[in-house]
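User: My instructor asked us to take a sequence, write out its structure as tokens, and then describe one feature of it. I'm not sure where to start. Here is the sequence I was given:
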Amino acid sequence: PVLFAGAVADPVPWYRAADLVVLPSRWEGMALAPLEAMACGRPVVLSDVDGARESLPPDLAPHCLVPPRDPAALADAVTALLLDPPLRASLGERGRRHVLSTHDVRHTTRAVAALYRELLGAGPVTSVVSTECREPIHS
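Assistant: Let's start with the prediction itself. The structure tokens for your sequence are:
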């Protein structure tokens, strides 16, 4: 059965209970739902729009991306995955490895810090931020 759960505080149990996660979008920013689903080892079926495409490793695209506004292609992709449990498991595991290797907060933190070091000429951040500009943080 298909269940539309609406907004939930913790999506992880819902992802883990799902056979696959479907995100039929007309547009996306950086789609968080597919990353969360893949982090839980669930395969995803996404509309091939900017923001969704970038969340996938390229080798998953043939199974996981469908043209936007194409319900027949969406139904075919979902049906194909529902009928092939080994493929679902493989796509889920590959998606999980992708998320852990490219979207993990530690990896992202290192990448952002490296970018800042590069932009700042490898100098310490405090050398370009005047203390007069700082405002105290109040709770």
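For the description part of your assignment, you could build on this observation: DSSP finds six helices and three strands in the chain. Try explaining in your own words what that tells you about the chain.
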